[in-house]
Amino acid sequence: MSARTLSYAQAASLALEEAMSADPRVVALGEDLGRGGVFGQYRTTDGRPLAAAFGSDRVIDTPISEAAIMGAGVGMALAGLRPVVELRVVDFALCAIDELVNQAAKNRFMFGGQGRVPLVARMPIGIWTASAAQHSQSLEAWFAHVPGLVVLAPGTPQDNYGLLKSALAGDDPVAYLEHKELWGLQGEVDTATPVPIGPCRIAFDAGTDLTLVSWSRQVQACVQAAERLTQEGVHAQVIDLRTIWPWDRETVLASAEKSGRLLVVHEAVQAAGFGAEIAATVAEHTRARVARLGAPRIPVGYAPVLEAESRIGTDKVLQAAQRLLRR
Q: Would 236 disulfide with which of 142, 226, 275, 278, CB 3.0-4.6 Å?
């Protein structure tokens, strides 16, 4: 059988394990990979570290230097390998931003396609409970702004398996943004079902009164809000974008045209978040009424009451949807 129940972390590890078995050019490097990764995302489904299966020359433990890790990954990719660069959390990836943004993303363009950088940078995003401002950021808009980068944000075990397989098969650098609080999420994974880069996923489809667009962990809050709206006689469609760049404009525009109302929801700070790009595009091409819901422009607090101010849960989504429906 090709379908099995896996956690979000296991799904990604399985995708990497299969890619490494099929292609000796696929390698992984980063901190703590030898013991299976901080979140267990480099362990086989039976719990063994991938390093035990593929050796330390393909699952490489590195020093604590993000710039060195990313720089080595870019060099590996240019030399013909297909590296997976593990940066633990997106907050730490900022130490490697030059190598990713100015080297990996631009190489294909600046050298006329002579060099390619088939690199996957795993940089988990989102609030991490009780981890405060330097470990809880969602920076997908930063990477979407950079020409040359593919930006992916899987929200389910199925998508974490399928999108990582697609990312590993590509020839361009990928900002791969898993969520820090989804690692234990269980779900069915069908390894025979491909998940291509680009098309979105319809996460909930009850009608055409309202379009909700989100990605990563916030899709769950949107689905829960849509279920509650159904009880009020409002029928919403929830779109899981899952590919931030290139994003599925056609599906979003078609849904917004039908419903006449679009709410974009993300955990990232609302100011200059990627939701603004979606909202502006919908406003330019349809007559739909548009609204956004994101976090306030504050650092994520350590204290639970402060952290809650930055979380976008079901109640906040429901309230934002109700405000839009009254307009």
A: 226
